[in-house]
Amino acid sequence: MEHPINILERYWNFTSFRPGQETIINAVIKGEDTFVLLPTGGGKSLCFQIPALAKKGICVVVSPLIALMKDQVQALNNKGIKAMAITSGISYNELDTLLDNCIYGNYKFLYLSPERLQQELVQSRIKQMHVNLIAVDEAHCISQWGSDFRPAYKNITLLRQLHPSVNVVALTASAKPDVVQDIIKELDFIDAKIFKQSFVRPNLAYMVFHENDKYYKLEMILKKNPKSSIVYVRNRKLTIELSAFLNSKKITATYYHGGLPNIDKDKNMTAWLNNQKQVMVATNAFGMGIDKPDVKTVIHMALPESIESYFQEAGRVGRNGEKAFAVILKNNSDETLIKNQFLNVLPTVDLVKQVYRKLCNYFQISYSEGAYETFDFDFNTFCKTYSFPSILCYNALLILDRTSVITLSKQFKNNVTVQFIISNKSLFNYLETHKNQNIIVKSILRLYGGVFDHVTKIDLDKIHKKAGVTEVVLIQALKQLEEHDIITLNLAKTDAQITFIEPREDDKTINRIAKTIKQQNALKQSQVKAMLDYVKNDTVCKSEQLLAYFGEKETAPCGFCSVCLQIKNTKKPENLKLLKNQIIELLENGAQPSRALLQHLNCDENALKNILKLLLEHNIICLTANNTYKLSHL
Questions:
Q1: N or C: which end of the chain has fewer CB within 10 A?
Q2: Domain 572-631 belongs in CATH node 1.20.950.20
Q3: In this structure, which long-range contacts are made by residues 471-479, counting pairs with CB atoms below 8 Å and at least 24 apart in sequence?
Q4: pLDDT in the model for residue 263
Q5: Cα–Cα nearest to 566, from 606, 608, 609
Q6: Are the folds of 204-331 and 343-412+497-525 the same?
């Protein structure tokens, strides 16, 4: 068997492992059932990829994240390692062929969602494979106490029945102690080897600032630390608005959200990765699988939904070991906003029943039918048809997705079919008088040979690139060809695909998952409470608060988070006295806003706020109508 370090060097060009990786890899290679808890950026994927490459056979990787599966498969293929991902929307015949390739084609990795394990075809083919390892990524999804619990993860034990002698490695970046024990129990581990890396990030300063003007504070932070940064915002619109604001302040910024076309995602991502842009303004759709070691600051402009998601997003900073900052900017409206965004949109069991029933009717699925049928899905039209509030309806669909009733693939696409309905000769006569159509028609003919003989599905992206026109111009041209009776055209726009995992059974289907819906709603409420407690608590070190949440009790104050710095400053009365005198001296020249005072004084912002508060209480200074500070006797 080849030594793991040789595999690491050949495929990843590293000459040494990160702390703890080699011990984990050796345990997996020895055939131990292994639990791996490594914080974001700890290199979890190598802990199953290298053991799988060291042994003969194929590794079956179960993951709930389609985008991450595709990224990992692409990365392995780029290294010359044969890997494939089986996602939704694959026909039975194609699935049959892909699984045969895994048996006979020397593939090393098969990535699939837990829902796929419910299919008899998948089970029978996996049984025929020479499986050398079962890897369970995002393993917290198997625990009913974990965020993003997915009942389909309980199907993973089927893999153990199909290959009882093969060991399992479970990996996650965030799990509380009760979740860890639940994972080990659910996966039926024997003599589990547990590897947990401390959540301590000694180079990372956690900061929480209360700010009425978050944009100004953001500008100050990014100018003070002019290095690679991520700024997380609440919605897609804000990614564009905030990046424009930063650019107007001479801070180079770009943006990223789930609805961007792939070409724009790649362009913006590349600019940020290559440090052509200092700041990436993004929704939480950004960051999964990104390993950029020199990120200096991660700033949240809105409160995250949970400590788990915050720790994962904050963990994308400072991976090079240099001092880095994870900042939350909050104000008085944030508590209401986080409750509106994450709690007031939780669907009840009754609403989930309604959405499921209407969804089946929408696609004309008869009772006890529909299993593994896939449909293009226009979400907005569906909501309008049945008068569903869009956010509640979307969250109901996500519940149906997580509980394996459906698979929801959120991928915008144009589903376009074309057939030329005039003769070849007549077409070229037409082009003589409609020269603007020439390049577009010829591009279609060269890409699709049978377009005169039958209805043909075409790819707008390929055509507009080949013809050298925009997609808007292409669509207008196709509509004109249809109006002139040159082609038949079906131009359907969808923003998702839905695959029904099981036959329609209406209430019976939803009653089966009702307990899970209620439990996950209660979990979400406790997570939001924990997040609010974290940002409100300004007496305990921020790092200690986070570590305690994940079960680490023997900790010490970090010394440089926002709480530790505030405590440090208040313990230095001589500094406070000096600061007080400096403020009075500045205000003798006239009223000043707090921003101007902060720019003149070499001090911590919280220290300034505390002194101003003290001076106001003792009536040494007062606030003017313009919200500036002045000496009371002037």
A1: N
A2: no
A3: 474/440, 477/436, 477/437, 477/440, 478/416, 478/418, 478/440
A4: 85
A5: 606
A6: no
pLDDT tens digit sequence for 190-205: 899 999 988 899 999 9
**Cα separation of 213 and 525, whole Å?**
28
Distance between CA atoms of residues 19 and 411, nearest Å: 38
DSSP for 352-376, written as a single string:
HHHHHHHHHHHTTPPTT--TT-EEE
Q: Which residues is 623 bridged to in the sheet?
A: 629
State how far the Cα of 537 lies from the Cα of 559, in Å rounded to an integer. 16
The rounded distance, in Å, linking the Cα atoms of 338 and 490 is 42
For residue 523, what are its two tokens? 């979990």
Joined together, the tokens standing for residue 55 give 């042994």
Flag whether pLDDT at 413 surpasses 80.
Answer: no
Nearest to 201 by CA among 315, 313, 300, 306: 315
Any idea where the domains of the chain sit in the sequence? Answer: 4-196, 204-331, 343-412+497-525, 413-494, 572-631
- Residue 276 — very low, low, confident or very high, per pLDDT cuts 50/70/90? very high
> Regarding predicted confidence, which is higher, 117 or 146?
117
Residue 530's pLDDT band (boundaries 50, 70, 90)? very high
Count of other CB atoms within 10 angstroms of residue 546: 24
Distance CA 311, CA 306 (A): 9
CATH assignment of 343-412+497-525?
1.10.10
Q: Provide the CA 337 distance to its chain's centre, in angstroms.
A: 20
Give the bridge partners for 168, in sequence order: 134
**Please, are residues 482 and 441 in contact by the beta-carbon 8 Å criterion?**
no
Provide the 8-state DSSP code for 347.
Answer: P
Residue 324 token pair: 């880095």
E-strand stretches of 577-633: 621-623, 629-631
Among 184, 118, 110, residue whose Cα is nearest residue 151: 118
Q: Under 8 Å CB-to-CB from 429, ≥6 apart: which residues?
A: none
